[in-house]
Structures are given as structure tokens and as C-alpha cells.
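Proteins fold reproducibly. Take a sample protein:
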Amino acid sequence: MKLVRRVHLYLGCFFTPLLMMFLVTGFLLIWTGDRMKGPDEATSLLQRLFFVHTEQYLPADQPDLKIAQLKSIDPDQNAIFTFEPHGFPDQTPVRLTESGTLPEGIDAEKFYHTKTLSPSSFTLHAEPSAPAIELSGPADTNVYIMPKVELRAYNPKAFKLLIYLMVTGVVVTMLLGVVLAFKLTKDKRPVWAAIALGIIMPFLLLKLGQNQEPPEEPPPGPGDSGTEIPGPPGVGPGNGLPPLPPLPPPPGKPEQ
């Protein structure tokens, strides 16, 4: 019995921090409903722990990328000038957004490499060793220069293995707790009652959630031609389709 107690004690102490993290983040996910499309959106520690809970990896720190705004171009130097210091090191892959009119010679779908001329100017190159892209045309200040974001790959296999061990260890710990409860309690009825209640109560609450009446929708008002009528697409008023042809007359009656 002493061995059972020690195994129960040390398994519980080892897996409690990780289990608490999953419990707390799971509760907050249910409470807030916060969902993110990718790890680059995770900025706070709690948001990163959400990815640990759902995807089994910890998003890495995102680099502080600075977006520069185009001020003017110099066709003689093929240089781009920005309102603020751009902060791009040489050979930084960047592309120009299509929020405004791009200078001639620039393709919004391509990434170019920068070569710094001054803190607020640089040239663009198709390759680091290629000559500068020839620029012309008017400068549109609605154009922004964005550096390329390198996507990071993650491998959650090792952490998933730890999760499998945690689940196994927690199950063993719970079973040992039940064994200790039966061994150390003279009256077994409260133990059986607690186990039965732990099985029945979640089931009853789930069934209770199924017996909800759907919200009633008000009937469409009489004579309201703009009221949407349920039905397949293309049926009902307001669909922009021509009216249906009249029905043919009954047999034996002349057409009006």
C-alpha cells in the first residue's frame, strides 16, 4: 500500500503543472471563444498557450517587421524614398502592395531585394547581385513596402508523446486514487455514490442541453412584398428574376 501511495503522489506532482495548463487554457478557450488563423497572430503568452493546447507547439517570437511607406522615386538613380527610415538591411526581400498605383517596372506579385542608399532610400533588385530595377512613372504615397515573412515550421511529435504519457499517467493516478479510497475507507457507500454521481451528472447536463426549444421567428407580415420567404434559391420576391408564366387553362375551357 505504501508503494501505491508513492506512485500516486509522484505521478500527481509530475503531471499537475501540465494538466493545469491544459485545464486553464481549455476553460479560457470555451469562455472567450478566441480563435486565431495562424501562429503569427499569437502575440500574448495566453494566445501562445492556446496553440500549445490545440496544435501542440509553442509559436516562436515574430520578428519586428517594419512597413515603409513610399514617398517618392528618383528615376535617375532608380531609388525609392520613404517617409520614415525604412530600416531594411541590404538584400531584404520586400514587395510593394497594390493599395496604390505602383511605379512602372514593379510587379506586385514579386519579391525584390533591397540595397540601402540612405536611411530613407534604397534600390530594388530582382536578385541580390542583379542591377537595380528601372523605375518610372508618378509616385503614389498609398504604396507600402512590406518585408517578406519567413514561415516557421513546427514539429509537435515530441510534445505529443509527452501528452500521451500525461494522459496515461493521469488515468493511472485516478485509478490509484479510487483504489486508495476503497482501501482506506471503511464505509464504501460514499465512494460508490461519488463515482456514480460523476458518471450520471455530466450525462444529465448533456441531455438537458438537447431539450431546448428553438427560438420562434415572427411570421411574415401580410401584404409585405419585401418579406423573404424560405425556399430554394431563385424563388420568392426580390430575386431579380422575371415573373413565372401563367398556368395553362384547364382542359375544355378556352384560353382567355
The helical segments are 2-32, 45-55, 157-184, 189-210. The first helix runs from residue 2 to 32.
